[in-house]
Every structure is written in C-alpha cells, then in structure tokens.
Specification:
The chain has 9 helices and 13 strands. By secondary structure, it is α+β, with helices and mostly antiparallel strands. The protein has an 8-stranded mixed beta sheet with strand order 4-3-2-9-5-6-7-8, with helices on one face. It has a 5-stranded antiparallel beta sheet with strand order 1-10-11-12-13. A hairpin with a 2-residue loop joins strand 3 and strand 4. Helix 1 crosses helix 4, helix 2 packs across helix 3 and helix 4 crosses helix 7. The longest helix has 19 residues. The two termini are 20 Å apart.
Length: 319
C-alpha cells in the first residue's frame, strides 16, 4: 500500500508544499485522507498512466504477458521493460480443433480469457513434448458461466513421431520454441491472454477508470455504505458457485448491518484485458488484500472480473 500511495502522491495535482501545509496545520491523518481522495480520482490515475504503456495491461507483480491469438495461431511474448513492454518472441502454435470459446468438457475448443500459469510439469507422456505449463482454466469467471473442462496447457509436440495439426483445446508449440519460452519467462509471474479474434489492446482510460473505481468500491466497503457498495456490482453478477446478485446482496446487507470498524488494504494490482465471446469489454483485476475487523481477519488474494461500459465499472464475478 505504501508504494502505491507514494506513486499517487507523485502524480496528484497538488504541490508538495500543499501537503506540507496540510500536515503542518492538520496532521498526518489529513494528508492520508487527501491521498485516499486522489486514489479515487480518475484524473490522478490518468496523469499517472500518461507515459506508461498499458497495451497488454497494468501490472505491479507480473513481469511477462503471453498473447495467444487463435485467429492466426500466433503466440507473442512480452516482457515488462520499465514503463513499456518489449516483445521477446513470436511463434506459430496449434490450438483446439474446433473454433470458438470453450464451454464444454471435450468440445475441442481453446478457451478465451486471461489466465495464470500455475505449474510447470515434466516427465509427461512423450506426446506432450519436453514439458507443459499448466493454465488456471477454468477461472472463477469461467465457473460463473458454467464453463466445463480442465487441463488446458501450453505444451510441446510428440518426441517420437508426428501429430495432427490441432489439439483437444491446449496450446502447443514446437519443442525448441517451448523450451525457449520456459527459459525466457518466470511462469509464476506470467499472464496468458487468449483471444479468439485479433487482440484488442487495453486503453489507458479504462485502466484509470478501473483503478479509481476499485478505490471508490473499497471506500464504500470500509464505511459500510451498502447502497454505494452494491452499485459497483452488475445485476448479472455471479460467483463461481453460480449464486446470483440477489443472494450476494442479501449476504452483504447482513454483514454491513453490523457496521464494524474495518481496515482494508489493497495493493500489488495486476489488471489484464479479458478477451471473451460475450461481446463485452472485460478486464481481470488481481490484487493482495488485507482485511481486519472485530469478527474477520483475511490476508490473501482478491480477484475481480470487471465490465467497462458507459464510463462505468461493474463487477461481474468476485473471489
């Protein structure tokens, strides 16, 4: 949190002497309130992002982005390079036999979205080549849509013999290219973005709106402002267990009615564009969360799937 506060401190439209005067006359709490206000201000974030490349997302922990375009069967790998991205490879790949987004077990389709690489596997059947990088499909958003299937990997080609020019849904590379990929990235710090059509780059105005909205949402959460808090959720909201908005809202109303004092910190944010077959502009945001109240203590990850439409951010799925 401190890192983010300092970053925004340098980007807000206040001069340091204003903060000095505020601190001198009203104390550190007044400065903190002003900084929190800046975190909720979309223009502060626009200024902060002004000279940053967010084409492939906004990342505070991830260092590599793999963009796999299904339409032309190309996989490009980008490494963060300061405030920019550097392309480090571009290779052909083979994908699922059938076109379209994955919804069913065994439908032979490659899923579309944004995924983590969660495991490196070796010692596999020779059919999969020298190694495989396991993706996080199905993620929470996939599950909220009742998508089925599992075991979506980035893997290689058979060590002995040929194979057909398609997979059951995985992404497959030439074995030497796969080994280069694994060598060039840290899979634990990598995001995989799979797009059915030509990849649509993220927009700075979307990222700024998302960041400011997350802090407005956090403020409503912290102050138990239930109406403001629920206004950030889409009426199409569903959890991974497919429980709907009304169920979620009723649960939150009971919790907020306690009006407990809360400490909520959100930091280490990674925001990636989320290609999808729904015709929506969606982003995936993952962050570290610290939550403390008299009844609950939680330290872990928070994941939000967000729709941006009509200059507004709505939460579609949360974990």
């Amino acid at each position: 949190m401190l890192k983010l506060v300092i970053v925004v401190f340098l980007s807000v439209n206040l001069f340091s002497k204003d903060f000095l005067e505020l601190y001198r006359t009203q104390g550190i709490n007044a400065v903190e309130k002003e900084l929190e206000k800046s975190l909720r201000d979309v223009n502060s974030w626009k200024k902060y992002l002004e000279n940053k490349n967010v084409d492939y997302g906004f990342y505070e922990t991830k260092e590599y982005v793999i963009v796999a375009q299904k339409n032309n069967k190309e996989m490009s790998v980008f490494a963060k390079n300061g405030d920019d991205f550097k392309k480090i490879s571009k290779d052909n790949m083979i994908i699922g036999e059938k076109a379209g987004d994955k919804y069913l077990e065994g439908d032979k389709k490659t899923p579309e979205g944004s995924y983590d690489l969660v495991q490196k596997r070796t010692g596999l059947d020779q059919f999969y080549g020298p190694l495989a990088l396991v993706t996080s499909y199905p993620n929470n958003f996939d599950q909220s849509l009742n998508k089925k299937g599992h075991g979506i990997w980035i893997h290689g080609m058979p060590l002995n013999g040929d194979r057909e020019n398609y997979t059951q849904g995985c992404l497959a590379l030439n074995n030497e290219k796969l080994k280069e990929l694994e060598k060039n990235i840290d899979y634990k710090k990598t995001v995989l973005i799979t797009s059915g059509d030509e990849f649509k780059k993220a927009k700075k105005e979307d990222i700024a709106l998302i960041l400011s909205s997350i802090y407005k949402w956090k403020d409503a959460w912290k102050t138990s402002n239930i109406n403001e808090y629920l206004s950030f959720y889409s009426k199409d909201f569903k959890r991974a267990d497919r429980s709907d908005f009304n169920t979620f809202a009723n649960q939150k109303k009971q919790i907020f009615a306690k009006n407990e004092n809360k400490i909520i910190n959100l930091y280490n944010m990674d925001i990636s564009p989320y290609p999808n077959s729904l015709g929506k502009k969606i982003y995936r945001a993952v962050m570290d969360e610290e939550y403390y109240s008299p009844s609950v203590k939680f330290v872990g990850k928070k994941e939000l799937f967000l729709e941006v439409a009509n200059n507004k951010v709505q939460i579609l799925t949360e974990d």
